[in-house]
Amino acid sequence: MTLSREQMAMRIARELQDGFYVNLGIGIPTLVANYVPKGLEVMLQSENGLLGMGTFPAEGEVDADMINAGKQTVTATAGASIFSSAESFAMIRGGHVDLTVLGAFEVDVHGNIASWMIPGKLIKGMGGAMDLVAGADNIIVTLTHASKHGESKLLPRCSLPLTGAGCIKRVLTDLAFMEIKEGAFWLKERAPGVSVEEIVAKTAGAMVVPEHVPEMRF
Amino acid sequence: MSGFDKVVNSYEEALAGLADGMTLIAGGFGLCGIPENLIHQIKIRGTKNLTVVSNNCGVDGFGLGVLLEKKQIKKMISSYVGENVLFEQQLLAGELEVELTPQGTLAEKMRAGGAGIPAFYTATGYGTPVAEGKEVREFQGRKYILEQAIVGDFAIVKGWKADRYGNVVYRHTAQNFNPMAATAGKITVVEVEEIVEPGELEPSQIHTPGIYVDRLLVGTFEKRIEQYRVRQGSVA
Question: For chain B, which has fewer Cβ within 10 Å, the N-terminal or C-terminal residue?
Answer without folding.
Answer: N
